[in-house]
């Protein structure tokens, strides 16, 4: 085959490459880097095009495109949500994403994002907790010990200095899996048999369960003062984890209100219930935690800017490294007007394998 | 590396694969197949989710996502438009697309679409001309001899039986390129030095020029009765090719009115000017050409369903063929809850090259 020019080639980070890159960098260091990258983009929040996600719903799931741009680069993520997939041994959520150059419209990166979304979700949680949790928080309750749990625990250790993680899941097998994966990583792991037990002494309570219907993982009387709740699992209409009464006495912090009002815990509240945008806390435009006894809540649903930050970080991380392959993805004729001639001339070159 | 399971692999059609597939099938046969595939999907137009494209504009271009779904499969195209790219030797338009299974949300195909868009645009034009052009049309004028011209000529030959193509471009070098590429393919090629000369005796007049501003490639007195105008080049706000007076006396046929009113030739007309949806002609719900003397106009802007049809056709065409490579794009842990464990275990396997 004739060699495509440099412009025709798009670096692709496969699942295998992403795993090796994460192991090469180290999971905790990757979490620190991603939290920094996301925080840097939250600081310049007004620079971004913020489009609602473009969703295609079916009876059993949803496929979404999540685009954003800072005027220099453009990124989008393709992500599906199909809770019934696990019954066939498939992932509930899979994702991939693309970063492109706004000046030319040419893609500059294609990456798997199932793993990268898990990383950026945990990094965002830890970044928010750094700004909102009580000072000197050292204990986190982790309620829901599924695919996101280990990432949350290690991000909170790396970014916030969490020393003890108290695990609880309705399925003890999930807790065992999570405890085994976290063993020997410098965290004190306590496996609990009730949610009440898990939150004992915790300054950070992370909920990340997979219930599709309105659920009440935390009731009002379970949650005392002086805690930060990191609610990760409620992320679509009809899917919530917290009792409404907790929301009513918490300081609520969100990513992008128009999206969170539809998808987050606050879908249980009036549409004008006051919430604070996290980026305004980070830029100092508004206060985060007001006092040590306050209950703060990060009502996390995941926003396109976090994916953009993560794609940009991976793109930078690839420079000089070998964790990608080039894809011949962009037709690049010598004469832009001669696309047809390029096809015909392909015949003259020897065949690819 | 440990081998990913079948679900983790997404077939990828590179630019080189697409060129070889087109040459393997034959360009005219590919045009016939694509025109049939697009027509079949136009026949079931109401089955589709029709979303407006999601555009991200900058000073010098646009990046768009064009999704659609028929409830069984989901497709989207990424496409940019950057007229100034040619100055740097880059393509004005590049594209790629993804086809996915609605039941699982898993992608089943990733394909280059710069070439495929050129093919589907020409196939759509020819399909429309089959329904709208005068019977026994044998001569086409091709005004604008850029990247789309050869595809238009061969699609009109394959689908409509065109025997003579009369070429005109403001740049004689473009006409020379087009004539050379079309030589020996069974068409009579006539190179013309004026647009007036090109349309002499033509029953189909195709305009496909790259002017960004309101242009008048065809004036009213140039166009007599009994012709079909296939207007391809006007495809964004501010970019038109026909004088308004032609539109006022033509029967106007469009793909998706909400999009065409913004992007097509009819942006020059009142927002309630009557137009006919092409799919309704094909299903027999409404009349196409009313008489031999009528001027019909296909105001083509390109719609997501055409890309969907093209992606589906390529996906079918790949079965049993070798024109793709598998990409390890979807994380597929043995236990869907153990994404973290999958990453850690990647360390145990031998490294990829």
UniProtKB/TrEMBL annotation, chains A, B:
Protein name per the record: Ornithine cyclodeaminase
Organism classification: Bacteria, Pseudomonadati, Pseudomonadota, Alphaproteobacteria, Rhodobacterales
NCBIfam families: PRK07589.1
Domain of life: Bacteria
Pfam family, one: OCD_Mu_crystall
MF GO annotations: ornithine cyclodeaminase activity
EC number: 4.3.1.12
Alphabetized UniProt keyword annotations: Lyase
